[in-house]
Amino acid sequence: MKKVLLIDVANLFFRAFYAVPSHFTMKDGTPSNAIYGVTSVVFSLLGNEKPDLVFAARDLKGPTFRHKEIEGYKAGRPEMPEELSMQLPTVFEFFTTALKIPLLSKETFEADDIIATVAEKFRHQQNTEVLILSADQDLLQLVEDDVFVLMPQNGGKPPKKMDSEAVIEKMGVPPNRVADYKAIAGDSSDRLAGVPGIGPVGAKKILSCFDTVENALEHIDEIKGKPGELMKQYAEQALLTKRMATLHRDLEIEGYAEENGQMCKTMPESLTEYLEKIGSQNLISRAKKIFGPPAPPVEQMGMF
To answer: Cα dist. 24→27, 55, 87, 169, 271 in Å?
Structure first.
């Protein structure tokens, strides 16, 4: 079976920064806890899952189309610590230079939209499994028979493989109704209001009866009491929230090509150089177990 691994880089480096002790540094004294954490998690996945293709996605600076649609989108989030921001070039280098895999992005869109688009390219391909590494609940809407989200766990536990049943257990709705759920219940982490006054329990109850937000609004008179009044009052806001919570799956992504995601089968020299730069013997040993020792240099034959 062909395995495709998609990595939400921002979600990964934030978790790594706060999970790995701050005393990790490179030889020149630069903090490296996020660098170490990202590299360690990716090595674990490469060793355990043995993916054939790997793609990573990152957010760009600047507003997205969602910021333009909704005032205050993702507002209030704390500034990135300087100790983390100074590590990002090396984190990005791990993907683009050391492993030579695509780090994809697109102006005005988010990494989630990039991941959704790439996942869609492989969905329903025969004998293909797509694994998405992220703790972002927005990506749970992509889960299907051949697409799974690997949710990082605390305490050094391996990621939890989220299938449709696990999504229902966690969210109370199936994957294809995650955006509808947020349209009603809202999402405080992204500052998506949904329908004020209707929380998770009310949202799940409405969707269990009407399946989608659009269908609920078409049958608004059947929703009795305060929930019906609130749905009617905030109908446009609910529909806007659903549009913002729904990931794009059909973007044109510069630099994407399936062959670019091919995972190297032997230890590339660029990875050896990267690991020596960050100065971790532990990661060097783990890389050798995954890829084997670096290939010996090819001797150049002289002309005479």
So the answer is: 10, 27, 12, 37, 19
Residues 6 or more apart whose Cβ sits within 8 Å of residue 110:
59, 64, 66
Across the beta sheet with 53-57, the strand order is 103-104, 53-57, 2-8, 128-133, 147-151, 160-162
Task: Give long-range contacts, CB 8 A cutoff, 24+ apart: 71-75.
Answer: 72/191, 73/190, 73/191, 73/192, 73/244, 74/189, 74/190, 74/191, 75/191
**175-245 maps to which CATH number?**
1.10.150.20
Rounded to 5°, the CA angle 175-119-77 comes to: 70
Determine the average pLDDT of the residues in 192-217: 96
Q: Where does residue 137 rank: exposed (0-12), middle (13-18), buried (19+ CB within 10 A)?
A: buried
201-223 mean pLDDT: 96
Q: pLDDT for 40-88, tens place per residue?
A: 999 999 999 999 999 999 999 989 999 999 988 888 788 899 999 999 9
- Tens-place pLDDT, residues 3-33: 999 999 999 999 999 999 999 999 888 899 9
pTM, two decimal places: 0.93
Rounded Cα distance between 193 and 210, Å, is: 20
Cβ atoms within 10 Å, residue 208: 11
Helices and strands: H and E segment counts in the chain: 14, 6
Domain 2-163+248-291, CATH: 3.40.50.1010
Dist. CA 58–CA 218, nearest whole Å: 38
- The structural domains of the chain, with segments of one domain joined by +, span 2-163+248-291, 175-245
One-letter amino acid at 277 equals: K
